[in-house]
TrEMBL record:
One of its GO terms (biological process) is regulation of cell shape. Residues 269-293 are annotated as: Disordered. Keywords: Cell shape. GO terms for cellular component: plasma membrane. PANTHER family: CELL SHAPE-DETERMINING PROTEIN MREC. This is Cell shape-determining protein MreC. Residues 115-263 form the Rod shape-determining protein MreC beta-barrel core domain.
Length: 293
């Protein structure tokens, strides 16, 4: 019986294979009937697969996605602005600390002021600060920063003052090249609005030998500017017909001025820095002729 069963099974399998492999009208008819019988089961399985797929992948609303993107864009922009303000505040705090430290260690009695107005047409000539006559300021007093000499005060208002910059042609200072005997008058030179002007140290010896990078400082002569204020550094020396001139690059960046210090003209005990043998500045008294009341 077992052999007969196996033989019958083999004959059945061979018949099924022949039905689905042979290409005859009879086999095609049988295949069609079998597919018709199985089609409900195939459709049911396909529906089940689609339902399972829909459960795993929820429907996405394009409008909701757009709203989420807009919310995220706004949040990113808000965080970027906060970051910029933080960096700006940090920079301002560092600058204020440096200003406080400079005023604390300075040999001069001075008033701190903030630049409140600059005009493009007079950018290299003047600026306005937020301190004036009622704040103890006077006309023709030196204005400085931690980098060096800026200029002098001009016209006064109760709580505002004009500052004539060192880069202006009318602001003249008696100056010398540190470490030499060369001395002259330094002032600004005319330049375009988009060009940072240099300074000119005039009336030097025609045969003077000056090294590029040499420091130029005030001499204290003239009764306005005390001695020892840093002005700039020599860029080059030019021989003129009778005298020599040095082109000087200011140590102060006049395009970035935000805070300044105005020296107290009524302080007869104000001191001008002078270098010791070790090169460290020390305080020496300014003469009565140098302290303008």
């Amino acid at each position: 019986m077992k052999k007969l069963n196996i033989l019958a099974l083999l004959i059945f399998v061979a018949a099924v294979v022949s039905v689905f492999t042979l290409d005859t009208p009879t086999t095609r008819e049988i295949q069609s009937r079998v597919m018709s019988l199985l089609s409900p089961f195939i459709h049911s399985s396909t529906a089940i697969e689609e339902s399972i797929s829909n459960v795993g992948a929820p429907t996405v609303d394009p409008k909701e996605v757009k709203r989420d993107n807009e919310r995220l864009t706004i949040e990113v922009e808000r965080l970027r602005i906060i970051s910029q303000k933080y960096v700006q505040t940090l920079d301002e705090n560092n600058q204020l600390r440096e200003l406080i430290e400079f005023k604390k260690n300075s040999a001069f009695k001075m008033t701190a002021a903030r630049v409140i107005k600059r005009v493009s047409s007079t950018w290299w000539n003047t600026m306005i600060i937020d301190k004036g006559s009622l704040d103890g300021l006077a006309t023709d007093t030196p204005v400085i920063s931690s980098a060096g000499l800026i200029g002098k005060t001009g016209k006064m208002a109760p709580h505002m003052a004009e500052v004539i910059l060192l880069t202006d042609e009318t602001c003249r200072v008696s100056a010398k090249v540190d470490g030499t005997l060369e001395q002259g008058i330094i002032s600004g030179e005319r330049a375009g609005l988009d060009l940072r002007p240099d300074l000119r140290l005039r009336f030097l010896n025609r045969t003077a030998v000056l090294q590029p990078g040499a420091t130029v400082i005030s001499t204290g002569e003239g009764g306005i500017f005390p001695a020892g204020l840093t002005i700039g550094r020599v860029k080059r020396f030019e021989m003129k017909d009778i005298t020599g001139e040095a082109v000087v690059e200011p140590t102060v960046d006049f395009s970035q001025l935000k805070h300044v210090f105005v020296l107290d003209a009524q302080d007869n005990t104000a001191a001008a820095p002078s270098k010791t043998e070790s090169g460290v500045p020390k305080a020496v008294p300014v003469s009565e002729a140098q302290a303008k009341p």
